[in-house]
């Protein structure tokens, strides 16, 4: 029996698609299985077609897959859009009173008709619980332990009344019982209980939020913008528990200025936005660079330009992030590839920002930060807080002539915080002398630019190299960055006749690593979610390597492992 589950539910917004999908995933997790969830929804305030897809297996799951085995169609649109996604032998669950399914003879698909709306109305006098009925039927097909589903329903609806919880359990049970034990409808997997280490389901937004809290973030500010909005919700939810100040500012310009201001006072601060919001932040982003004020900023990419596809994913902002704002100044751009890397990247971002006194961009995308996935519980063991060179009062007392921007061999100048006697200084957006006073002197300008640039010498030694996965002796190499790692590693599980190079830290660029490890560019391929092969451009600019083969996608959808396997075969 194939130990793999690919399940999808579709319907209009308001049908409970997202909650039902999450409950299905949590039920799989509590059986001991790994899960990866992928969601799609349009940029509409109300209505529109929503889907929630769950890929579950007994071993590590890295991404969604193209072919699904069970499709829950809560409306006709789901049949129209997704019926052909069912694999041979797959099952479509539907309400025959609401949805019409005409299966062609050459489409080897099973159908399971259940009076979903009727069952819901018997319980709550409306069809509001049709999604829960369908959930129960789905898990019956996989022979799941119903008691586990009950525990999930109680947890998910714990803020609701006892009556609502009772009704949802009853709806799930009637859906579960609607699938007869001796039914001819069969699926390829049984959701058996297995022993496994404790795991949680989190999105990338939640992972970054947890990393920020573990790093000691005390001020978070943002303006709502998909897909970063959920991080604002997460931080606000945890505001009191972690002695945190969370603000929703009036626009993105105010957001970044508030974050810089809080950081100037010595508070670990963070802001987040999407590409359009980051465009508005550019001038102040440069202010962080010239004033050498630490800044942590998450940029959640979505499909552009302009408003583009507001609720879809993409990787079109790589070169934008690396070259953002005018003039030249050092910044760090880190693009985590999964939720574990999202957590550790957030912790590192705060340490690096303060140690090197520069802005750090955590470059994510809708795919990573809005896709719930199972992972081991994040560990705070070994986390060290590095505040960098902040002078305390006793140190300032020994300095007769404090120079905030003192010329040093490392390029890092010790800083003081407001209120410290003897540490007064100016921090403005003009170039300046060692005291912070504006100057247009040629010699001072050149020395100050060189001072800020010197930081890169130690920084590049501290940043980790890209990771190599798979068969290290393989002649074929797939190069990817950020969230594309997830479907690439899922493809690697099915075909290990290639190796994977995944870049997380993209600026400063790991030049030495590439010149050492990419020895056969003609047998290499770059996979990324944009139209102009931005990583390819960056590699050629930084190393001179011309990797001609690419697999690009820019329709707002993520890569699927099946697409990657076919592309690798052509290498």
Based on DSSP secondary structure assignment, what is the total number of beta strands? 20
What does the largest sheet look like?
7 strands, mixed
Estimated radius of gyration: 26 Å
Poorly predicted runs: none
CATH superfamily of the largest domain: Pyruvate-ferredoxin oxidoreductase, PFOR, domain III
CATH fold description of the largest domain: Pyruvate-ferredoxin Oxidoreductase, domain 3
- Order the strands across the largest sheet as they lie in space: 9-8-10-11-13-12-18
Write down the domain tally. Answer: 4
Q: Quick check: average pLDDT?
A: 95
Give structural notes.
This protein has helices at 17-30, 76-82, 116-124, 130-141, 146-156, 162-177, 204-214, 229-237, 252-264, 275-280, 282-291, 318-323, 339-356, 366-369, 393-396, 442-462, 485-494, 511-517, 534-543, 561-569; strands at residues 4-12, 34-40, 49-57, 68-73, 86-94, 110-113, 199-202, 219-222, 245-248, 269-274, 295-301, 332-334, 359-365, 373-376, 467-470, 477-481, 499-503, 505-507, 524-528, 549-552. With 571 residues, it is of the alpha/beta class. It has four domains: 4-196, 3-Layer(aba) Sandwich (Pyruvate-ferredoxin Oxidoreductase, domain 3); 202-376, Thiamin diphosphate (ThDP)-binding fold, Pyr/PP domains (Rossmann fold); 393-462, no CATH class; 467-569, Rossmann fold (3-Layer(aba) Sandwich). Helix 17 (485-494) links the parallel strand 16 (477-481) and strand 17 (499-503).
């Amino acid at each position: 029996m194939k130990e793999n589950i690919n399940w999808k539910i579709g319907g209009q917004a308001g049908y409970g698609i997202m909650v039902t999908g999450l409950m299905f995933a949590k039920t799989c997790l509590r059986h001991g299985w790994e899960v990866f969830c992928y969601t799609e929804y349009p940029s509409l305030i109300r209505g529109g077609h929503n889907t929630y897809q769950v890929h579950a297996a007994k071993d590590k799951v890295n991404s969604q897959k193209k072919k699904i085995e069970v499709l829950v169609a809560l409306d006709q649109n789901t049949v129209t859009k997704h019926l052909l996604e069912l694999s041979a032998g797959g099952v479509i669950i539907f309400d025959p009173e609401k949805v019409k399914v005409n299966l062609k003879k050459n489409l080897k698909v099973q159908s399971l008709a259940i009076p979903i709306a009727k069952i819901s109305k018997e319980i709550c006098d409306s069809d509001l619980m049709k999604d829960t009925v369908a959930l129960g039927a789905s898990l019956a097909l996989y022979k799941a332990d119903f008691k586990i589903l009950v525990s999930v329903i109680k947890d998910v609806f714990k803020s609701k009344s006892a009556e609502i919880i009772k009704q949802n359990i009853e709806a799930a049970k009637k859906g579960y019982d609607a699938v007869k034990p001796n039914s001819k409808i069969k699926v390829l997997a049984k959701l058996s209980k297995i022993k496994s280490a404790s795991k949680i389901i989190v999105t990338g937004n939640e992972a970054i939020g947890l990393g920020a809290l573990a790093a000691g973030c005390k001020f978070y500010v943002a303006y709502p913008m998909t897909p970063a909005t959920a991080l604002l919700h997460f931080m606000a939810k945890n505001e009191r528990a972690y002695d945190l100040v969370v603000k929703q500012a009036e626009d993105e310009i105010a957001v970044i200025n508030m974050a810089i201001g809080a950081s100037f006072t010595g508070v670990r601060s963070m802001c987040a936005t999407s590409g359009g919001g980051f465009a508005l932040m550019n001038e102040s982003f440069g202010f962080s660079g010239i004033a050498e004020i630490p800044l942590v900023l998450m940029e959640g990419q979505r499909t552009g330009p302009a408003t583009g596809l507001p609720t879809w994913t993409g990787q079109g902002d790589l070169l934008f992030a690396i070259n953002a704002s005018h003039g030249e100044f050092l910044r760090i751009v880190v693009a985590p590839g999964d939720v574990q890397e999202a957590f550790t990247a957030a912790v590192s971002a705060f340490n690096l920002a303060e140690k090197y006194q520069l802005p750090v961009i955590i470059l994510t995308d809708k795919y990573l930060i809005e896709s719930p996935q199972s992972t081991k519980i994040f560990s705070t063991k070994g986390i060290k807080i590095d505040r960098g060179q902040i002078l305390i009062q006793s140190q300032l007392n020994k300095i007769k002539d404090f120079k905030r921007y003192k010329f040093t061999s490392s390029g890092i100048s010790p800083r003081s915080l407001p209120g410290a006697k003897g540490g007064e200084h100016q921090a403005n957006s003009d170039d300046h002398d060692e005291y912070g006073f504006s100057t247009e002197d040629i010699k001072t300008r050149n020395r100050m630019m060189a001072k800020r640039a010197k930081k890169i010498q130690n920084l590049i030694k501290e940043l980790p190299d890209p990771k190599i996965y798979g068969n290290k002796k393989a002649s074929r190499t797939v190069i990817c960055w950020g969230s594309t790692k997830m479907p690439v590693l899922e493809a690697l599980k099915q075909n290990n006749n290639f190796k994977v190079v995944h870049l997380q830290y993209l600026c400063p660029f790991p030049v030495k690593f590439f010149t050492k490890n990419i020895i056969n560019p003609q047998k290499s391929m770059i996979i990324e979610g944009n139209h102009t092969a931005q990583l390819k451009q960056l590699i050629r600019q930084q190393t001179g390597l011309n990797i001609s083969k690419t697999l690009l996608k820019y329709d707002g959808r993520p890569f699927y492992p099946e697409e990657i396997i076919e592309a690798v075969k052509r290498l």
